[in-house]
Amino acid sequence: MNPVTPRPAHSVLRPDLARIASWIEPGSRVLDLGCGDGALLAHLRDHRQVRGAGVELDDTCVIACVRRGVEVIQQNLEDGLALFDDKQFDTVVLSQTLQSMHRTEHILREMARVARFGVVSFPNFGYWPHGWAILRGRMPVTGQMPYQWYNTPNIHLCTLRDFEQLAGELRLDILERATFNEGREVKLFPSWRSTLAVYRFASP
């Protein structure tokens, strides 16, 4: 019998995930959509006593979640969140996945349905080198968006203002915003200096 590899005593979260974790109340119920390897949920369980579950499609990531002891459901987010009841969770998280969703408004409405609060993060297309690349006749390729135009999973790119306008149309009340560039928080001119935006909103 192979020995079971023990869980690490702690793991260091990416700065954006650490910020998300700081916004979540201890002891609350959390749903993480596109949860990846379960790092955020494991951190919330171990450090904030959160009861959490994840939704993930990728086989490798699902296995990683199971190894962390994270509850995970293997499902395509494009199919919606019909498995979950209204306000079943306190917070629902969609981290760096919104830009790859085909039905952006639908997933945001579903997030607002199943939880009291939502957290969304996405690449900021308003980052100034993106505009410079387009002026030179090329689609931008950066650390936050490292794909070429023909193989990118990002189908709905937006700026901070674009997202805030959509949130208003969906009656999502934005409570907090954080912006980052290569892991460092950006507070001065974030609309064009940040590569990643993170928003926390209250459901209608």
TrEMBL record:
Keywords, sorted A to Z: Methyltransferase, Transferase
Record GO terms (molecular function): methyltransferase activity
Origin superkingdom: Bacteria
BP term (GO), one: methylation
Entry keyword annotation includes Methyltransferase: yes
The UniProt record lists the keyword Transferase: yes
Name of the molecule in the record: 2-phytyl-1,4-naphtoquinone methyltransferase
Lineage: Bacteria, Pseudomonadati, Pseudomonadota, Betaproteobacteria, Burkholderiales
Gene that this polypeptide is encoded by: menG
